[in-house]
């Protein structure tokens, strides 16, 4: 599990810990232990699960969401809820003679406030998701299959591209789409000079530049290693080549800074394009464009 986001949430982590500590201190400090015979174990299991799951939700939020308004509101709301859930749990094993009314008020108010804050956060999350969906459109086509995502670039894999090409072939009576395959030149040398991590970082940055230069209907996937494959629905070969040329130009002009140093490294791509022809299958069109790209690379040509 990747815990790197946790380091960016120290304040929210403290809020959750403070809520847990305060509720435990209050509920244990103000009460007296019940006799074992008076404890309802069924209630303990039910309320214990609510408290534990609230803690688990906070943990998963902290390790999976970046800092921001939505994350803060969700964690603060859940921490309020956790506060009430812990009081509720502990009063199964403690009884409160003099403070019962005060504690029951303290117990019910934070969970209500927590629910309100979380409802606000969920609405904000919904708004955030609408924006993210727009950005995701070029990463994914008609379906979402997270087991086909390449975790380095967050682009879909070649397998996903095959399914999307197949659906293009099935949906149109005469195929009217093009594909482009891009390959980074001398990526092996870059890996050897700056290390594999920097190579991964470069793949991510290049993916972002590729996406930035696509239209909302196009799709980019990682084919293999330093090869990317693009799908342009309803697009002729010439237009697809023009877009690929723009991507190539954009990448050639970006100064990549390995290890955040002052050094600038520029990258060049080779690409090949193919249009679908009658009788094509996803494999045949991918093989054609792959072969064409290999041919260009062998002859040192920029593109076809
Ligand atoms: N960092 C990183 N490197 C990868 C990954 N997948 C493949 N590679 C590396 O990509 C390199 C591809 O090497 P080549 O196919 O020779 O490509 P190239 O060096 O760009 O050579 P040309 O295409 O002929 O210019 C190899 O060093 C692989 O180890 C990855 O996920 N991350």
From TrEMBL:
* Enzyme kind, highest EC tier: transferase
What is a GO molecular function of this protein? diguanylate cyclase activity
Transmembrane helix as UniProt keyword = yes
Q: Which reaction does it catalyse?
A: 2 GTP = 3',3'-c-di-GMP + 2 diphosphate
Keywords of the record: Membrane, Transmembrane, Transmembrane helix
**Residue stretches making up the GGDEF domain:** 175-304
What residue intervals traverse the membrane? 45-63, 70-90, 102-123
Cross-referenced InterPro entries: Diguanylate_Cyclase, GGDEF_dom, Nucleotide_cyclase, Rev_trsase/Diguanyl_cyclase
Q: Which Gene3D superfamilies does this UniProt record tie to the protein?
A: 3.30.70.270
EC number(s) on file: 2.7.7.65
What's this protein's name? diguanylate cyclase
Q: Which organism is it from?
A: Aliiglaciecola lipolytica E3
């Amino acid at each position: 599990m990747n815990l790197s986001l946790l380091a960016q949430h120290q304040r929210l982590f403290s809020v959750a810990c403070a809520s847990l500590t305060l509720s435990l201190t209050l509920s244990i400090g103000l009460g007296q232990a019940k006799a074992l015979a008076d404890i309802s174990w069924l209630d303990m299991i039910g309320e214990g699960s609510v408290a534990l799951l609230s803690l688990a939700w906070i943990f998963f939020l902290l390790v999976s969401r970046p800092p921001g308004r939505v994350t803060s509101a969700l964690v603060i709301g859940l921490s309020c809820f956790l506060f009430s859930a812990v009081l509720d749990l502990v009063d199964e094993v403690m009884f409160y003679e003099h403070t019962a009314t005060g504690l029951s008020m303290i117990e019910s108010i934070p969970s209500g406030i927590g629910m309100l804050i979380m409802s606000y956060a969920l609405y904000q999350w919904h708004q955030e998701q609408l924006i993210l969906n727009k950005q995701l459109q070029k990463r994914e086509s008609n379906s979402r299959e997270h087991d086909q995502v390449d975790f380095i670039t967050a682009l879909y894999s070649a397998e996903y591209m095959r399914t999307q090409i197949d659906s293009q072939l099935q949906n149109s009576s005469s195929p009217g789409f093009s594909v482009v395959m891009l390959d980074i030149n001398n990526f092996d040398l870059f890996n050897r000079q700056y290390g594999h991590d920097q190579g991964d970082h470069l793949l991510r940055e290049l993916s972002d530049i590729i996406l930035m230069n696509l239209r909302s209907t196009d799709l980019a996937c990682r084919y293999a290693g330093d090869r990317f494959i693009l799908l342009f629905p309803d697009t002729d070969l010439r237009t697809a080549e023009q877009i690929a040329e723009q991507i190539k130009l954009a990448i050639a002009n970006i100064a990549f800074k390995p290890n955040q140093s002052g050094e600038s490294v520029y990258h060049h791509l080779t690409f090949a394009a193919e249009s679908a022809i009658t009788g094509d299958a996803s494999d045949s069109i991918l093989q054609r464009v792959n072969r064409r790209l290999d041919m260009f690379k062998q002859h040192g040509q920029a593109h076809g």
